[in-house]
């Protein structure tokens, strides 16, 4: 059971999607029905909630205020439901985590599996996206916390903990530099190389250095 009105559900969907059509597709309802609810609310509130632009709908200041409060109310309702369960002697909990693809496998994924096995009453909701998308989900309270690259480069977030990651280089065993204990960017300047797409490495430690120094002109290939 949801305590939130039909308008609240429709409004939140449009706020997230920025479009009546996309919100309608997500909710499996007609765009006209959603628009009718929003127009009625704007008339009742006496202020527009969205700017109607050629590329879609953008929240006004009033719309942003309503959306922020709605997200807070939804989160508080989830906590209230958990407290109801505790009153009945039920031990339950739900945590939503947003994380980058690099953490979706390996040691971190194994640690999550251990948590799920040890705390079977805990429901974990995982969402995988790039750092920017995860940051947006944290700001919008779509997830409880996020695990991203370059958290200090994301405005409006509180960084609770961070780990520095070393940048690695992969090469053939017969490469003259393969036996080196450590390498600098200058050591690699004369070699042909492959780097990830810009969106993948710009937030990584060293990513900005690769871009700013413009190393390896004419010798760079990009992974798709």
What does this 3D model show about the protein?
- The protein has a 3-stranded parallel sheet, with helices on one face.
- The chain has 3 domains: 89 residues, Arc Repressor Mutant, subunit A, CATH 1.10.10.10; 74 residues, D-Maltodextrin-Binding Protein, domain 2 (3-Layer(aba) Sandwich), CATH 3.40.190; 58 residues, no CATH class.
- The longest helix is centred in the first third of the chain and has 27 residues.
- The radius of gyration is 23 Å and the shape is extended.
- The chain contains 8 helices and 7 strands; from the N terminus they run H-H-H-E-E-H-E-H-E-H-E-E-H-H-E.
- It is α/β, with parallel strands linked by helices and 224 residues long.
- 42% of the residues lie in helices and 14% in strands.
- The two termini are 44 Å apart.
- The C terminus is likely disordered.
- Strand 1 and strand 2 form a beta hairpin.
Keywords, separated by commas or semicolons:
14% strand, Arc Repressor Mutant, subunit A, D-Maltodextrin-Binding Protein, domain 2, 42% helix, alpha/beta, disordered C terminus, 3 domains, WH_DNA-bd_sf, DNA binding, extended, two-stranded antiparallel ribbon, DNA-binding, 224 residues, LysR_HTH_N
Query: So, CATH architecture of the largest domain?
Result: Orthogonal Bundle
Q: Number of domains in the coordinates?
A: 3
| Strand coverage percent | 5-15%
Cα distance, first to last residue?
44 Å
Q: CATH topology of the largest domain, anyone?
A: Arc Repressor Mutant, subunit A
Outline of the structure:
The protein is built from 8 helices and 7 strands. With 224 residues, the chain is of the alpha/beta class.
